[in-house]
User: What shape does this take?
Amino acid sequence: MSPPAAQEASGLRRRARAPRRDSRIAHALAPALVLALAACDAPTVPARHLEDVYRFALLTQPPLVYRWPAGTTIHVLLNTGAPPQADTLEAAFADAAAAWHSAALYGEFRLVRVGRVEEADVVVTWSDVPPPVQTQECEPELSPGVTTFCLGDDPETDETECSLERRRDRLCPFPLQPPAQPSASRVRFLLTIRSDQATQPGQTRLILAHELGHTLGIGQHSDDPADLMWGGRIESAVPSDRDRTTLRVLYQTPPDIVP
Assistant: This one.
């Protein structure tokens, strides 16, 4: 049976932690305040295009914008498993990275593959391949694909190690699995793709391209089915004009959170 022509977009998962209870927040559409950079030589998006921007801030109170500092090289580890899973994931990442690079008109970021988890900012893994990071405090949920990251709560009320050691404007790292030193981690994002997608390379490309959009800072879903970041069934693994404009405005918006 041939694979379906489109895939149902997965979610973004942010784990918020507080004493004596766990909570998982699913993000829906929320208002975001788009701020312009003051520097006169900063790239700008023409005003006539701003109506093509969809909301990208996390649904928190107040809404929070997260993104990498402009010019960041984002190091990505592919936890590929054995062939043919490995070949599928490698090809999907190459295509997805190239697609998002083409959307970053001013070189706001680069997605680069690395071979060691100690070097990684992002880990992409199949659901049936043991991840090289510990996820007990910030577990991904099962879906075709999901992006998971953790933000510690107020250190005055949350005694988790992350909140005690990290500022609220930083994401918590996933501790590394032994034999690596757990505290040596710089991994802020875990992208998990359900293993049954490995037999459908086209589906894997759609899922990974969408989830990388979340990793870059698009914290919500588009309201237009034509967009890669649409929250329903995706038709294309290439960012649309609206995806591109939203990404460019995002990277001109001062972040509340940086990885």
The CA atoms of residues 101 and 110 lie 7 Å apart.
